[in-house]
Amino acid sequence: MQQQLRNIMTSNVFTVNESQSIQEAAAVMSENNIGALPVVNNNGQMTGIITDRDITLRSTAQGEAAQTPISQVMTAQQVVQGTPDMDVHQAAQLMGQQQIRRLPVVENGQIVGMVALGDLAVDHQYGNEAGQALSSISTPSAPQK
User: Fold this and answer.
1) 72 Cβ partners below 8 Å, 6+ apart?
2) DSSP state of 112
3) Which sequence spans correspond to the domains of the chain?
4) Cross-sheet strand order for the sheet of 46-51
5) Best-predicted range by mean pLDDT among 63-72, 101-110, 117-126, 136-145?
6) Residue 101 dihedral angles phi and psi, to the nearest 5°
7) What spatial distance separates the first Cα and last Cα of the chain, rounded to whole Å?
8) Which CATH architecture does the domain made up of 5-137 adopt?
9) Helix or strand (DSSP H, E) at 97
10) Is 96 left (phi over 0), alpha (psi -120 to 50) or beta?
11) 125 pLDDT band (50/70/90 cuts)?
């Protein structure tokens, strides 16, 4: 039986604007116990995503100030996205291939939900897909020189 992402996604998604600071993004993450935020422009269109890892590696480790705009450290190019109608199995496979733990769900350029690897894991029906995705995501990469 095919199930769509709309049935398992979190639809109450916190977002940040690309002009906000990384400190503001980190505060939203901390207050809501989340590790990724879709980044939107003034029209509500998704322009990227920022993760706790982005903040750590692209700002803190580089000596950037807390007031650095999100747009300077977010992932903006080729952000992997799903759609509400996407099959859950396809989404799990995509997450594994792209080595991502969170998949923004977008419809008409607007963020409508978020699916985390944990969403797949808690639904016993998708435990195998979650395990396969995690295995792919957890494959160690070579250190940068």
Assistant:
1) 58, 59, 64
2) E
3) 5-137
4) 16-17, 36-40, 46-51
5) 101-110
6) -100, -15
7) 46
8) Roll (3.10)
9) helix 88-98
10) alpha
11) low
